[in-house]
Amino acid sequence: MEHTFHTTPLGVVASRPFLDKPDTAHAKPGLYHIELRLGTAEASSLIADIDRRLEEYIEDRKRNAKVLGATALAPSPYTLDGDSVTFAFKLSAGTRTGLRPQDPPVIYDATANPTTDIRIIRGAHVRVSFQFAPYHSNLFGAGMKLKLAAVQGMAKFAPARQLAGTPSHGFAP
């Protein structure tokens, strides 16, 4: 796996993100995740990069004789939604045995300083730092995972101290 970090263009959080605590609804130890919605124009280069890297991964597997014949494709990490595209970024909170816990993704403020004072919410404007992680599964086939590394809140985020009990009338600064 390549260890280079990539950054998305500015987008909008599409659903409830799990960045400070892992989502344990479907499995333990859980999953940190965020879905980012981009316009089709901003998303086109990222989609092309994902598809190109997946194709290279499949060709490499065939060259190394690890796969014979056609390779099935796993579900894509992006979904086309009319005039926008939603990308899913995920990071496992650890192994099933619990031997290797994973630190949560780092959250940065708009000035690129790490912070714990803000909570990213649905509708926030963010950029996501990630790594491409190709994989192959006998059940699903070859696929590309977008491994979440960090999130930068650019605008419309809620300070954690306001969410902790101070009345804010539901508005994010």
Structural class: alpha+beta
How is the largest sheet built, in terms of strand order? Answer: 2-4-6-10-9
**Which runs of at least 5 residues are low in confidence (pLDDT < 50)?**
161-173
Chain-averaged pLDDT: 82
What labels describe this entry?
disordered C terminus; alpha+beta; single chain; five-stranded mixed β-barrel; 173 residues
Q: What does the model show?
A:
The protein is of the alpha+beta class. It has two helices and eleven strands. The protein has helices at 40-63, 160-163; strands spanning 6-7, 11-13, 18-23, 31-39, 78-81, 84-92, 106-108, 118-119, 125-137, 141-155, 158-159. The chain has a five-stranded mixed barrel. Strand 5 (78-81) and strand 6 (84-92) form a beta hairpin. Mean pLDDT is 82; it is low at 161-173.
Q: How does the SSE layout of this entry go?
A:
Blueprint: E1 6-7, E2 11-13, E3 18-23, E4 31-39, H1 40-63, E5 78-81, E6 84-92, E7 106-108, E8 118-119, E9 125-137, E10 141-155, E11 158-159, H2 160-163
Q: Could you write a compact summary of the structure shown?
A:
Helix content is 16%, strand content 39%. It contains two helices and eleven strands.
